[in-house]
Design a protein that fits this description.
- With 207 residues, the chain is α+β, with helices and mostly antiparallel strands.
- Helix content is 24%, strand content 31%.
- The chain has helices at 5-24, 52-68, 127-138; strands at 32-33, 75-78, 88-95, 98-106, 116-120, 123-126, 142-147, 154-157, 161-162, 167-171, 189-196, 199-205.
- Strands 1, 7, 9, 10, 11 and 12 form a 6-stranded antiparallel beta sheet that branches. A 4-stranded antiparallel beta sheet has the order 2-3-4-5, covered by helices on one side.
- The radius of gyration is 24 Å and the shape is elongated.
Length: 207
């Protein structure tokens, strides 16, 4: 049965508006909605002076958890018996069913570990930690927050790597940086996620 002309015109207009809206706001509705976090926010102290080998292990574990964005039980171990004989040694942090290995360099005879550096072979990114960090940072100026559905529960990543998955924020109209009267014009914008040693970094990117 042939539809009346006015129905055809209205349907065409709706389709055109939808196409324009999609083109004008390419990240609107992309990803899965997230809600308030249930995870406790971890913090890395950034201490360079630690209390012996056990203090060093705790500091390295704090860095791994801060990068992951969530707190979980861990096992830490440093393969060193005598700092005078072994100023370079590995330390491992086992958490999230993964093992992060740090190569630690310190000064011979420095039993208080006041002059040391440590470089991890990898870090752990977690979905829950990322979602919690994004919510804490953006919820006060967002109408909606979403993240890619293929963001793994946890994944091993090189230090300093920006993930292939992203989160997306639909700003409030009043947001001076991304709202209606900003250059962004109220469109949803992208959150790039970078996992660094001791911190989870978020960066906004316009469409």
């Amino acid at each position: 049965m042939k539809r009346p002309l006015w129905i055809v015109l209205v349907a065409g207009l709706v389709a055109a508006l939808a196409a324009c809206g999609s083109k004008g706001d390419p990240y609107a509705g992309v990803g899965d909605s997230i809600g308030p976090p249930t995870e406790v926010e971890p913090t890395a102290t950034g201490d360079t002076i630690v209390d012996g080998i056990y203090g060093l292990q705790e500091e390295l574990a704090r860095r791994v958890l801060a990068a992951a964005g969530m707190i979980r039980p861990y096992q830490a171990d440093c393969a060193v018996a005598n700092i005078d004989l072994e100023p370079v040694f590995p330390c491992t942090i086992a958490v999230f069913d993964e093992v992060v290995t740090y190569q630690v360099k310190t000064k011979p005879g420095d039993n208080n570990y006041s002059d040391w550096t440590a470089k991890p072979d990898a870090l752990i990114a977690t979905r829950a930690g990322i979602e919690a960090a994004v919510w804490r940072h953006y919820a006060s100026k967002a109408k909606a927050i979403r993240c890619d559905g293929d963001l793994p529960e946890h994944q091993r990543v090189p230090p300093g790597q920006t993930l292939g998955q992203h989160c997306y924020v639909t700003p409030t109209a009043q947001d001076p940086d991304f709202g209606t009267n900003s250059p962004n014009g109220g469109r949803a914008y992208v959150i790039d996620i970078t996992i660094n040693d001791g911190q989870l970094d978020l960066a906004e990117r316009r469409p």
